[in-house]
Specification:
Shape: globular
Distance between the termini: 49 Å
Radius of gyration: 17 Å
Number of helices: 5
Helix content: 25-40%
Number of strands: 4
């Protein structure tokens, strides 16, 4: 068995899929004095770090994830309008209000 191969019981994972989903939904959107909307949260920042920005499909997946967890609605509720800058984890995006929440 795997536990015998590793000399005892295997350690439990620190987080699972449910924890990751909860972490993604724990974020804040604040407008800074510079007019930039800052999106912060451990899960969102991890998502940014794991996204390969060189691939269009990865950028689309990032955008869809933000929409699915309510970030797009939160950005709008914070007052963002077309052309405003959204910053998360050092990455900046231009906000657009259509189905594509961030311009490429």
């Amino acid at each position: 068995t795997p536990s015998e191969m590793f000399g005892g019981t295997l350690p439990r994972a620190a987080s699972g899929p449910l924890d990751e989903g909860k972490r993604l939904r724990d974020y804040t959107v604040e407008r800074g004095f510079d007019g930039v909307y800052h999106l912060t949260g451990d899960g969102i920042e991890r998502l940014v770090a794991r996204t390969n920005w060189d691939y269009y499909e990865a950028r689309v997946r990032f955008q869809k994830t933000l929409k699915a967890i309510g970030v797009t609605d939160a950005i709008e509720a914070a007052g963002a309008r077309d052309g405003d800058t959204i910053e998360v984890s050092g990455m900046e995006f231009e906000y657009t209000a259509n189905d594509n929440p961030f311009a490429e």
